[in-house]
Amino acid sequence: MTAAVLRLQSWWRQREPRERRMLGLMVLALAAFVLWYAVLVPLRQARASAQVRYERAALALVQTELQLAQLRTLDQRELAPPEDAAALKQTVMAAAQATGLAVSRERERDQDSGGFGIEVDAASPQQLFAWLDALRQAHGLAPSTLSVAKREGMLRVQAEFDPVE
Predict the structure, then answer these.
(1) Domain of 90, in residue numbers
(2) Which of 76, 104, 136 is a domain's end point?
């Protein structure tokens, strides 16, 4: 190693001062080029990529916080259930009609309970779940019993409702 350094020093001393300055400037220019393209450009690209990831994460955080706030307001709102059996029946039937669920039969249960049942011969899963969700979200209701069977590619639904006491 020292022999190589000694040869390099000897070679350097043999150069004219003008050549030394020119070689020094060339080495400096080459070092600046390497620094620019090997270090600074990749760092800038990494910074830009990190900024994009940060902005996406911040947006996702804001959306999540908004959804959480909406869920909290849903939990805190007081849903007034229908007051009597007639209002319950009207609410259930209106929700079924609004979601496109065609009720084929209605049946009254015993007079003491005031409950009733409905049957739907053909419903799509989307209609059924839209109806159940509408009852829960808008009125805080759910069937006391629910029977669903697949028949000829559609769903056959039987649901019974009891008045809320």
Answers:
(1) 85-161
(2) 76
